[in-house]
Design goal:
The protein is mainly alpha-helical. Helices cover 54% and strands 0% of the residues.
């Protein structure tokens, strides 16, 4: 199970404020189910073994769980989503597997980083909710995929997002508002209200924490060679 937003903050901050700026750039090559590259706009397959992805040249294999719905396994969905445009992905996205939001973020990152941050955090919220509502699923399936996406996609996005804490806080508010006023056709809000409340509260606490620590975050980013935007 993924740790809550507020407990994951030290990890997020370590990505956004420590070390040298990442050498990873979107778009990443995507390894499909057969292990071959499937285009130049997908998510890189990376070996998730810690706080950050080691390299865009690493690889991992997803052992899929039995799909909870008749729409395909996580690995098959990755291959399908990788070949879709942003507009195609956004169409009825509230009923799609949460990885669809990550693919929107990846495909937007070069042209509109602020929108990429929004879709990444929306994907985080909905994927965390799905996992919270399904605590007994195979850990080598969706939980492993969530961890890998959080590292591979989250590293460059968080490096950018934490360069302007005020904008990131406003984006988190926008994420929460979007989630509240849109149905969730993949994980029923009505069936798992406690889990939804917990996940949403965690994201709110993350926002409060980064606003509280924004001066410290900016200082650490400057010391590490990261950009702080006005």
């Amino acid at each position: 199970m993924p740790v809550p937003f507020y407990l994951a903050l030290p990890l997020v901050l370590s990505i956004a404020t420590a070390g040298s700026p990442s050498s990873q750039h979107f778009p990443f090559p995507f390894l499909g189910a057969n292990g071959s590259a499937s285009g130049d706009t997908g998510i890189a397959a990376a070996d998730f073994s810690g706080a950050q992805a080691h390299s865009s040249q690493s690889s991992f294999k997803i052992i899929s769980e039995k799909p909870p719905k008749e729409i395909g396994s996580p690995s098959s969905l990755q291959q399908m989503f990788d070949h879709q445009t942003v507009d195609q992905l956004k169409q009825n996205i509230e009923s799609k597997h949460p990885i669809a939001y990550y693919f929107v973020a990846v495909k937007l990152f070069k042209q509109d980083k602020e929108e990429a941050v929004f879709w990444y955090y929306l994907g985080q919220l909905r994927y965390r909710y799905y996992l919270a509502a399904n605590p007994n699923i195979d850990p080598t399936g969706d939980p492993a995929l969530f961890a890998s996406l959080s590292s591979v996609v989250g590293t460059p996005i968080n490096e950018y997002a934490f360069g302007n804490i005020q904008k990131l806080a406003a984006t988190i508010d926008r994420v929460l508002a979007w989630d509240e006023c849109h149905a969730n056709g993949y994980t029923s809000k009505a069936k798992h209200p406690a889990e939804l409340k917990t996940v949403r509260r965690g994201l709110k606490e993350l926002k409060e924490k980064i606003l509280q620590d924004q001066d410290q975050i900016r200082k650490k980013r400057s010391q590490s060679g990261f950009e702080n935007r006005p």
